[in-house]
């Protein structure tokens, strides 16, 4: 049984829709393999339950996503964990002076992420959705559209983010 299907089968009955959506999105064809599985892995890292990270990573590897690409996916998730908190905070603050200051955060990985730029941007967008950073969502969506990504492809990344987030919440709640 594919790793995400196996994980979906462990979700309780109240999360049947989450399980169904995990299965459906694992077969999504709007995104390429690396983009799709990268969204799953990046979002699993953003949400955190070990079982989810393991299942998403195993599914990506089974689909032929390289270890180098997985490393780039993890870099996107780690970078967004940092950037989303900072940019969400300054966006929410009333004092606009903070938005005018340079972040002074090191994000060198964006210069050479180890994967196609479009994939890295999709992964960053998906994690930004989970982390709730409107400023980062807008910035990554604008970059994706400039790179020729369609609204349906952006939506697919957001759908993966929503479902992986829900699965992570269910797994964390059931572990209590």
UniProtKB/TrEMBL annotation:
Q: Where is the signal peptide?
A: none
Q: Which residues form the active site?
A: 133 (proton donor), 136 (cysteine sulfenic acid (-soh) intermediate)
Gene3D superfamilies given for it? AhpD-like
Its Enzyme Commission number(s) read 1.11.1.28
Q: Which UniProt keywords apply?
A: Antioxidant, Disulfide bond, Oxidoreductase, Peroxidase, Redox-active center
**Which cysteine pairs make disulfide bonds?**
133-136
* Transmembrane helix is among the record's keywords: no
What class does this enzyme belong to in the EC scheme? oxidoreductase
Which stretches make up the Carboxymuconolactone decarboxylase-like domain? 102-175
Q: Which domain of life is it from?
A: Bacteria
Catalytic reaction(s) noted: N(6)-[(R)-dihydrolipoyl]-L-lysyl-[lipoyl-carrier protein] + a hydroperoxide = N(6)-[(R)-lipoyl]-L-lysyl-[lipoyl-carrier protein] + an alcohol + H2O
**Family per UniProt?**
Belongs to the AhpD family.
- What does the UniProt record say this protein does? Antioxidant protein with alkyl hydroperoxidase activity. Required for the reduction of the AhpC active site cysteine residues and for the regeneration of the AhpC enzyme activity.
| Annotated protein name in UniProt | Alkyl hydroperoxide reductase AhpD
Q: Which organism is it from?
A: Caulobacter hibisci
- Name the encoding gene, please: ahpD
């Amino acid at each position: 049984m594919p790793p995400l299907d196996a994980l979906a089968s462990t979700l309780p009955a109240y999360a049947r829709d989450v399980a169904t959506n995990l299965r459906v999105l694992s077969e999504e064809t709007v995104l390429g393999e690396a983009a799709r599985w990268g969204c799953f892995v990046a979002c699993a890292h953003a949400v955190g339950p070990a079982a989810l990270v393991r299942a998403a990573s195993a599914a990506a590897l089974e689909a032929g996503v390289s270890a180098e690409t997985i490393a780039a996916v993890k870099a996107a998730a780690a970078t967004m964990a940092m950037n989303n908190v900072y940019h969400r905070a300054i966006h929410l603050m009333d004092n606009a002076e903070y938005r005018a200051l340079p972040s002074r955060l090191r994000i060198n990985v964006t210069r050479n992420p180890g994967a196609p730029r479009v994939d890295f941007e999709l992964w960053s967008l998906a994690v930004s959705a989970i982390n709730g950073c409107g400023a980062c969502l807008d910035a990554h969506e604008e970059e994706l559209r400039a790179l020729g990504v369609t609204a349906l492809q952006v939506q697919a990344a957001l759908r993966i983010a929503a479902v992986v987030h829900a699965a992570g919440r269910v797994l964390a709640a059931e572990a209590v």
